[in-house]
Amino acid sequence: MQEENRNKFNYTYSAPTESERKEIEEIRREYLPESENGEKTQRLKALDSFVRNTAKAAALAFGVFGILVFGLGLSMVLSWNIMVWGSVVCMAGASFSVAAYPVYRIVLRKNKKKYGPEIQRLSRELLNEQTDTENSD
Known about the structure:
The chain has helices at 2-6, 18-30, 34-78, 83-98, 100-136. It is an all-alpha fold.
């Protein structure tokens, strides 16, 4: 009986939990050389930032221009007593301000269409690189 127990092999395997695994992967990513995925990650972040910030800048320009024109029209009405043209200028400025959000949506959609394929390609490459390095470990 003792000889039988001596010939047995006991092995206990414990895998990290999902949260431990994510934490380990995050730490591991910090120590990867920059040349592996740093450039692609930076390019991906830069493209995403460009797509969003260009739309915001266009909308902001429309909004600020509209407010300035609206203020000019208001000055024409209140200070210079030019009622008709002041009202027209106020309405033009208000319409520019109202158009700011649709301009944002249009520019964002255009940029997503233009840069979307490259962002998708880069993100697929980055995800595949991470998957390949996990499989090889």
